[in-house]
Design a protein that fits this description.
The chain is mainly beta. It has a single domain, classed as Neuraminidase. The chain contains no helices and 28 strands. The strands form seven sheets. Strands 1-3-28-27-26 form a five-stranded antiparallel sheet, with no helix packed on it. It starts with 64 loop residues before the first strand and ends in a 9-residue tail after the last strand.
């Protein structure tokens, strides 16, 4: 999405969150985790730039590795059902987790993470710095993958292992081919420029579904200021054979994060219209979807966010639970939420910065990577991310 030049104080005391944590995850299986240490930067790497994270309750800057005060069970992990047995039946997403870790820092606004299993690395956008970063999980090495990136935002991966990128200043969707060349796959609809593609997901048939709000053309911090040419802020589908683009939903205020359920029978789309006015939505909507035809129907609100906070990006795990970012409002809500497929809140991960987006990674797809403003965070979970990124 977009980020102001002056980040708010994102202080969070895990003990002060709205849900009772005194009996948080009692009896959860301990799972060893190792703090990630940044390697000395080479000529092609990016130094951590000091500890530049948003301020916390401590006067000391945030370190790399587990967040300060972490212990079993980590108080940054909050179950929505502490009155039950405090095991996997309460919050299966957190069964067997260790501490939330801060694995890299030094960014202006981290967004759009995607995991490449073949290389064991995460790519993510640093939008104002006009670059895509690469974090290698095998040794903690951080480097620049692409600069300039056309103020890239959301990233995903297609079924052939190619990077799909939403570009603000390019006002387009691109594909990075296996030889490194870049192909423009969508930049216009009905002969007019797209607004500023924000997030995308690739279906099993190869079709690319993406959102197109106006955040990237609202100023010069995360793109190039321009007037929108599209009358509405739409959700689009690109046909994998013809390349034709069509509107699948046209009634969003600001469509943002997008993902499918594991069986591709549900399409989830975030509306961050609240950024445009207090009466606008801050929620996730869900639709019945036929991926092959592009037909979307029976839209309804899946989960409301606690205003003034909003959600920005999301992913599903193999059981269809929805994991979404939270930020921009109450610092006590900054982090990640996890919902059942029926929209019931299961729990939260508290992060000391506004969170924009997330993805599952790791060799078992059980490590959640979290883009939190100036830093990249990670936590091992008791679930696996769905195959669709």
């Amino acid at each position: 999405m977009t980020n102001p030049a002056n980040l708010p104080d994102t202080s969070v005391d895990p003990r002060s969150a709205g849900l009772d944590r005194r009996n948080l995850l009692r009896g959860a299986t301990a799972l060893a985790a190792t703090a990630v240490t940044m390697k000395t930067a080479s000529a092609a790497s990016v130094a951590p730039l000091g500890q530049t994270g948003a301020p916390t309750l401590s006067t000391e800057p945030l370190p790399l590795g587990p967040l300060p005060g972490s212990r079993y069970p980590d108080s940054h992990l909050e179950s929505a059902k502490p009155k039950l047995s405090f095991g996997p039946s309460d919050f299966p997403a957190f069964a067997g987790t260790m501490a939330v870790e801060r694995v890299a820092t030094g960014f202006r606004w981290a967004e759009g993470p995607v995991y490449f299993a073949a290389g064991r690395y995460v790519l993510f956008s640093d939008i104002p710095n006009n670059r895509i970063m690469r974090f290698s999980e095998d040794d903690g090495h951080l480097s620049v993958y692409r600069q300039p990136s056309m103020n890239s935002n959301g990233n995903t991966i297609d079924r052939e292992g190619r990077l799909i990128t939403c570009e603000h200043s390019g006002r387009r969707i691109t594909r990075t081919e296996l030889d490194g060349s870049i192909t423009i796959i969508a930049d216009k609809y009905n002969g007019k420029k797209l607004n500023s593609p924000n997030d995308a997901v690739v279906a099993s048939d190869g079709s690319i579904w993406f959102t197109d709000p106006v955040y990237g053309i609202g100023g010069y911090y995360e793109g190039i200021k321009a007037e929108p040419e599209q009358e509405k802020k739409n959700v689009y589908r690109m046909d994998p054979k013809s390349g034709d683009i069509k509107v699948v939903v046209d009634d969003f205020v600001e469509p943002n994060g997008i993902t499918f359920s594991p069986d591709e029978k549900k399409l989830y789309v975030i509306d961050t219209g609240f950024t445009d006015g207090p009466d606008n939505p801050s929620h996730i909507r869900v639709f019945d979807v036929d991926v092959g035809s592009g037909k979307v129907s029976n839209g309804k609100v899946f989960a409301e966010m606690p205003k003034p906070s909003i959600t920005d990006g999301m992913r599903c795990d193999t059981a269809g639970r929805v994991w979404c970012s939270v930020g921009w409002g109450d610092p006590k809500e900054d982090g990640v939420r996890c919902y059942t497929p029926d929209g019931e809140l299961l729990g939260k991960i508290h992060i000391p910065e506004t969170v924009a987006n997330l993805c599952f990674g790791g060799q078992q797809r059980n490590r959640l990577y979290i883009c939190g403003s100036t830093s990249l965070y990670a936590v091992y979970t008791g679930v696996q991310g769905a195959m669709k990124p």
